[in-house]
Amino acid sequence: MIEITIGIAAVTMLGMAVIMSYILGWASKKFHVEVDERVEAVLEALPGANCGGCGYLGCSEYAVAVVADNAPVNQCPVGGEGCANEVADIMGVDVGDSVPNRPVVHCGAHFEARQGRTEYRGEMRCAAANLVAGVQGCTFGCLGFGDCVSACDYDAIHIEDGLAVVDYDKCIGCGACVKACPRVIISMTDFHEDKIPSVLCSNLDKGKDVNTVCTKGCIGCKACVKVSDVFAMDKDIAVANTDAYRVEQEESAVEGLEKCPKDCIGFIGKNAD
Asked: Dihedrals φ, ψ of 102, to 5°?
């Protein structure tokens, strides 16, 4: 009797296996989606960092976008020029101009330049400190607790005397630091040259109010704008036109830098010192 029961169970299981195999085989054919072989080829050419620096969630999504949506082949900051050339060969297109896109910290005030700082005893993160009123007088300045440092996988940004400073020799332009900054004072910028001029301030207040909170904040005096076409005014704050900047304009940029009474303009990038 036991042998019969076991036999029935075995036959039943075998029958179910055959039926499921048939169903799975039918489903795989019915719902099969053709995948362009170029997607796999592009994915193989990418470094696999999944950093999001290309603007997509990861290498897989970027590979699909390149093949299906004609996304630019030179958007991988980790792979650089070599990767762009390889992807271009796969797609049969020209690479086009590739300009490094790197973060700029729009604040140049170390601890000694900040007015109205108070002792902070909360969680030592910028995201937490940014929720507390009066941590420091300038509500546009770097908080200096290093959320950007924690977000960077390439050891390319550090806190120096309360200020986030980018190491452009290590930075690959993934943009993780930009996303981590709660005060939105880090932005991605095209570097048409190894070093570019930048106004190291984000304070949108009037000059007299800036003076009360920082000794290195832009006061909107227009001194740089009057002597150099590299700079322009955006409401009450000076900005550098980095999109148009080329090395031939360095002398003009230096003139603007030297005219700044608050020392809030500087060159950033490789060999900026």
From this structure: -130, 160
